């Protein structure tokens, strides 16, 4: 494993036609958490999985929050830049192309921030249970960038208006957005897997 700016895991891909996946865990996860999910939804793809650098009560995250659902937006922007720099380092170290982010919860939120602030760093994204990461993101161009958002209809942590606003933000920037809502809470369900596999097969 190369010595890069984030603690991470990397698994080389067997199918070079597939975009590598940038796996971004939720609060309390680590660089191992989403590897099985990545293997499941994109067999043969290279997997790049960093550990968030921010600790909240000893639990890794990708950026600070002020309270539940209230983000430190200055930290969001700084950490999105750090992660974009890490992606550039990893691409050089491992000889991979621009990755498709696959993020859950806090990981989905930092991926959304990267799309809005550093769109060149990602080939696209799968955002599981995302929220709006920045109240007033800068204008940008996401023309044709494939994005899948999956929200939970019964998610106790996210009001339905929030991901709807994020979806509007992506559409205003001309992203190729698919936004699905599943009959679930904040945790993942079988329907999430089916939607991810189907979307990846088409993208």
UniProtKB/TrEMBL annotation:
It comes from Consotaella salsifontis. Residues 81-134 form the AB hydrolase-1 domain. It holds the Pfam family Abhydrolase_1. It comes from the Bacteria. This is Phospholipase/carboxylesterase. InterPro entries: AB_hydrolase_1, AB_hydrolase_fold. Gene3D superfamilies: alpha/beta hydrolase.
């Amino acid at each position: 494993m190369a010595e890069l700016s984030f603690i991470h895991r990397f698994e080389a891909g067997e199918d070079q036609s597939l975009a590598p996946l940038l796996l971004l865990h939720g609060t309390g996860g680590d660089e191992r958490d989403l590897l099985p999910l990545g293997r499941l939804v994109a067999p043969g793809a290279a997997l790049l999985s960093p550990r968030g650098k921010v600790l909240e009560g000893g639990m890794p995250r990708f950026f600070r929050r002020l309270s539940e659902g209230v983000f430190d937006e200055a930290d969001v922007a700084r950490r999105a830049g750090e992660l974009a720099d890490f992606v550039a380092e990893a691409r050089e170290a491992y000889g991979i192309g621009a990755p498709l982010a696959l993020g859950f919860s806090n990981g989905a939120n930092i991926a959304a921030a990267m799309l809005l602030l550093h769109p060149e760093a990602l080939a696209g994204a799968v955002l599981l249970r995302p929220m709006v990461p920045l109240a007033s993101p800068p204008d940008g161009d996401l023309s044709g960038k494939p994005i899948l958002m999956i929200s939970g209809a019964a998610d106790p942590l996210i009001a339905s208006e929030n991901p709807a606003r994020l979806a509007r933000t992506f559409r205003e920037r001309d992203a190729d957005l698919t936004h699905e809502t599943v009959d679930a809470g904040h945790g993942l369900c079988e329907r999430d897997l089916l939607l991810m596999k189907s979307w990846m097969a088409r993208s």
